[in-house]
């Protein structure tokens, strides 16, 4: 297993680059005004503001404008939440940063301790299935060659 670690790392990195990275970027991409995560963050901040009794109490002390300020504060809080998530996504999902992350993940996976019974069982099963399929293919090829030789 040790001699194949570089190949394992390269294969995992290839899979991460082709499968995971695009999915992460797709899931967090802006679509129709904001991603689900950004919208939910905005909702959470807005809810947090609404559930802060001190804020409500102080704003109610301001005649006429207090409720308007409170409403605008909730709206601004929602926008701040969305903007923070979008800014984080833009920074964290930058292709260079994402590729560095994928390389670290692949390296970590390639360094997994292989003295693991579940991993041993999986590898044994894969090898057994491969040998069974190979054996069946050899039998088919032998049958074809026997037909040809008997003619």
Task: Give the overall pLDDT as a whole number.
Answer: 83
> How is the biggest beta sheet arranged?
none
The outline comes out as: rod-shaped
Strand content: under 5%
How many discrete domains? Answer: 2
Q: Uncertain spans, ≥5 residues at pLDDT below 50?
A: none
Which structural class best describes the helix and strand composition? mainly alpha
Topology as a string of helices (H) and strands (E):
HHHHHH
Distance between the termini: 47 Å
Helix content: over 70%
Q: Rg, please?
A: 29 Å
Number of strands: 0
Number of helical elements: 6
Q: Would you kindly provide a brief summary of this structure?
A:
The chain is built from 6 helices and no strands. The radius of gyration is 29 Å and the shape is rod-shaped. The model has no long low-confidence stretch (mean pLDDT 83).
Overview of the structural elements:
Helix 2 (36-50) runs antiparallel to helix 4 (66-92). The chain is rod-shaped. By secondary structure, it is mainly α. The chain has 2 domains: 2-112, no CATH class; 115-151. It has helices spanning 5-28, 36-50, 53-60, 66-92, 95-110, 117-150.
């Amino acid at each position: 297993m040790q001699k194949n670690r570089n190949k394992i790392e390269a294969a995992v990195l290839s899979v991460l680059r082709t499968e995971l990275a695009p999915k992460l970027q797709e899931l967090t991409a802006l679509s129709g005004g904001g991603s689900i995560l950004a919208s939910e963050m905005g909702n959470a901040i807005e809810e947090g503001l609404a559930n802060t009794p001190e804020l409500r109490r102080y704003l109610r002390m301001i005649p006429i404008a207090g409720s308007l300020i409170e409403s605008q504060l909730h709206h601004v809080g929602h926008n701040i939440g969305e903007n923070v998530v979008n800014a984080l996504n833009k920074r964290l999902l930058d292709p260079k940063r994402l590729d560095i992350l994928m390389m670290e993940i692949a390296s970590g996976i390639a360094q997994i301790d292989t003295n693991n019974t579940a991993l041993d069982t999986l590898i044994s099963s894969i090898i057994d299935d491969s040998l069974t399929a190979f054996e069946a293919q050899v039998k088919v090829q032998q049958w074809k060659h026997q037909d040809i030789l008997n003619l």
